[in-house]
């Protein structure tokens, strides 16, 4: 097949040229929409993919409100408020919405969720190559002391593309042979911020370091693959630091477990024992049942970067028996969400964010907590189905709702 030049622009003529070239290869209304609102979303825009979206709720949740304290960028909780929140789930998985709703009912009848944001960071891990390990180690000692100077420089430098929203908080180094990995950690406001931290880190590497470092690296690499970007890793699973670190918890009552979830706390404890050790034995990065399902559905609905579902759904679930119930929680160490920028600017995403009270600036910590609560709703319901004798309820749900219609 001869390779021809494919029109890359998103003007009307280029869009129609691509559609005409592909018309005989598609069957369905993929082209029959006004694409003007989406011309800034992707290159080579040609059509649309429509995803059915369920809405489930209300989820009873006590949300914290947070502010960043300067200059360290630590989170300070300012108040807490209980609400009932409806969540959008863009998906084609039969049983997802009804299962998440069942978890929400059980939690609501048990007194609701409590959610907390523990940390907020976005990382870019550059690398500098020297002639040997001695130089790399000496450079590490130097650059670790440059954080205040780098903050001042970023605030006042006249370098094209610098972001004032990406604020440098810490630097950590890791020396491997002649290479010094430098992990820049930023806060990025209400955006996920990877574009911001990329631009600022590039400027630090190519201007600040080259002008001021007493040791000149042989070369620099903007991302040395320690930054946690779109790859689950033990480092960020344990410590957080790439996205929002969020916890959602609740105490399920014996009555709610019996009547709504149709299982028992003893059965859930057995499942916790089996599932935890199964995860350890297989080397899983997470100890949870199905966090990616809820997170992906909410990401698609609200215009988040779906490529970040893998890292965002790293999860550590816990459960233990307390008086009159079962205390359950989930920790998402690297939840990468935004309420401004990226796909959140498109009309459908703004509408679903508005539904949750999460549209625009000042709402990102609220969104992170709602995603965590919805994720735990599904974890609770799916775990309860698996905990029944022989996991019959889990099988039945997939048998009834997972087949061809």
Question: What can you tell me about this protein's structure?
Answer:
The protein has 13 helices and nine strands. By secondary structure, the protein is of the alpha+beta class. Strands 1, 2, 3, 4, 5, 6, 7, 8 and 9 form a nine-stranded mixed sheet that branches. A hairpin with a 2-residue loop joins strand 4 and strand 5. Helix 2 crosses helix 12. The mean pLDDT is 91.
Write a short abstract of this structure:
The chain is built from 13 helices and nine strands. It has helices at residues 12-22, 96-108, 133-144, 147-156, 194-212, 234-239, 254-259, 265-282, 291-302, 309-312, 347-355, 364-387, 392-401, and strands at 53-69, 74-90, 113-129, 167-176, 179-187, 219-221, 243-253, 316-322, 325-335. Helix 2 (96-108) crosses helix 12 and helix 9 runs antiparallel to helix 12.
For this entry, give a set of tags.
405 residues; alpha+beta; nine-stranded mixed β-sheet; 9 strands; globular
Query: Uncertain segments of ≥5 residues (pLDDT<50)?
Result: none
Number of helices: 13
Order of helices and strands: HEEHEHHEEHEHEHHHHEEHHH
Q: Average pLDDT value? A: 91
Number of strands: 9
Cα distance, first to last residue? 38 Å
Major pleated sheet? 9 strands, mixed
């Amino acid at each position: 097949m001869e390779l021809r030049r494919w029109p890359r622009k998103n003007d009307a003529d280029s869009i129609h040229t691509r559609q005409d070239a592909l018309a005989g290869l598609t069957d369905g209304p993929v082209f029959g929409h006004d694409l003007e609102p989406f011309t800034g979303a992707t290159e080579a825009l040609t059509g649309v993919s429509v995803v059915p979206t369920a809405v489930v709720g209300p989820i009873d949740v006590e949300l914290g409100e947070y502010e960043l304290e300067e200059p360290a960028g630590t989170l300070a909780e300012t108040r807490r408020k209980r609400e009932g929140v409806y969540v959008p789930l863009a998906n084609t998985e039969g049983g997802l919405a009804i299962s998440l709703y069942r978890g929400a009912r059980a939690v609501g009848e048990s007194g609701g969720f409590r959610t907390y944001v523990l940390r907020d960071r976005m990382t870019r891990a550059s690398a500098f190559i020297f002639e040997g390990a001695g130089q790399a180690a000496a450079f590490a000692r130097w650059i670790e002391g440059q954080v205040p100077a780098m903050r001042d420089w970023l605030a006042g430098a006249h370098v094209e593309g610098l972001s004032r929203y990406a604020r440098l908080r810490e630097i950590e180094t890791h020396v491997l042979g002649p290479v010094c990995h430098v992990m820049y950690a930023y806060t990025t406001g209400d955006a996920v911020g990877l574009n911001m931290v990329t631009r600022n880190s590039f400027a630090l590497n190519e201007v600040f370091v080259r002008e001021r470092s007493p040791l000149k690296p042989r070369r620099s690499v903007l991302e040395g693959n320690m930054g946690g970007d779109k790859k689950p890793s033990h480092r960020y699973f344990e410590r957080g630091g790439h996205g929002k670190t969020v916890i959602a918890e609740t105490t399920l009552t014996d009555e709610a477990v019996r009547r709504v979830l149709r299982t028992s706390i003893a059965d859930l404890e057995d499942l916790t024992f089996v599932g935890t050790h199964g995860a350890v034995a297989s080397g899983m990065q997470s100890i949870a049942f199905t966090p990616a399902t809820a997170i992906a559905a909410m990401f698609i609905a609200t215009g988040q970067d779906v490529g970040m579902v893998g890292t965002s759904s790293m999860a550590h679930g816990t459960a233990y028996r307390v008086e009159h119930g079962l205390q359950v929680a989930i920790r998402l160490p690297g939840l990468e969400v935004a309420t401004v920028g990226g796909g959140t600017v498109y009309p459908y995403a703004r509408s679903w964010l508005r539904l949750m009270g999460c549209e625009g600036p000042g709402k990102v910590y609220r969104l992170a907590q709602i995603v965590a609560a919805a994720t735990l709703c599904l974890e609770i319901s799916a775990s309860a189905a698996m905990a029944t004798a022989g996991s019959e309820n889990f099988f039945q749900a997939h048998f009834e709702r997972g087949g061809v219609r």
